[in-house]
């Protein structure tokens, strides 16, 4: 009996250990595609206009250290892959009243990809709706041409993680 219990426990452990780390269900991108947000230059960006394109959406804030570390890599990926159709959008989890500061920060960090200001409360609510219940930053989702979230990452992505995510949607 004891041997059977040990064998059963080992079999269960092996089954659990074999489950891929990324096997969790991905959130829907529908809440994102339903929105229009303002750029730091106060122009609207309707996310619906980005449907059908491979898309990286990165939530960030000026005060976020890991965001500051990740932004140069996102800018590099934008330059490298925009010719292949990839769109990177940064959503600043910032108060719209800080529009000038966001614009200055974006210039200083050479953020050449499209940016919008999500607001603090609305930005947090959007992150929660698309798979970030902890509301931590940075938070990134990668969406394929069919509009399906294929990668979500809480915390800074490494350059290798970005490359792999991009290749999965191009």
Topology (elements, then pairings):
Layout: H1 2-17, H2 30-33, E1 36-38, E2 44-46, E3 55-60, H3 65-81, E4 87-92, H4 99-108, E5 115-117, H5 120-129, E6 139-143, E7 149-154, H6 159-169
Parallel strand pairs: 3-4, 4-5
Antiparallel strand pairs: 1-2, 3-6, 6-7
Helix pairs in contact: 3-6
Describe what you observe in this structure.
There is one protein chain. This protein is globular. The chain has helices at residues 2-17, 30-33, 65-81, 99-108, 120-129, 159-169, and strands at residues 36-38, 44-46, 55-60, 87-92, 115-117, 139-143, 149-154. The protein has one domain (27-169): Glutaredoxin (3-Layer(aba) Sandwich). The longest helix is centred in the middle third of the chain and has 17 residues, at 65-81. Helix 3 packs across helix 6. By secondary structure, the chain is α/β, with parallel strands linked by helices.
């Amino acid at each position: 009996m004891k041997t059977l219990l040990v064998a059963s426990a080992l079999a269960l452990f092996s089954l659990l250990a074999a489950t891929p780390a990324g096997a969790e269900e991905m959130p829907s991108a529908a809440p994102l595609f339903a929105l229009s947000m303002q750029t730091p230059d106060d122009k609207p960006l309707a996310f619906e206009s980005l449907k059908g394109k491979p898309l990286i959406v990165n939530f960030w804030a000026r005060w976020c250290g890991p965001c500051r570390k990740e932004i140069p890599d996102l800018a590099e990926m934008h330059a490298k892959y925009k010719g292949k159709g990839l769109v990177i959008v940064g959503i600043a989890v910032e108060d719209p009243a800080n529009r000038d500061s966001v614009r200055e920060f974006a210039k200083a960090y050479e953020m050449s990809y499209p940016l919008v200001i999500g607001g603090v409360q609305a930005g947090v609510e959007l992150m929660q709706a698309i798979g970030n219940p902890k509301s931590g930053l940075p938070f990134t989702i990668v969406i394929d041409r069919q509009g399906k979230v294929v990668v979500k990452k809480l915390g800074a992505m490494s350059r290798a993680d970005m490359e792999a995510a991009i290749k999965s949607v191009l």
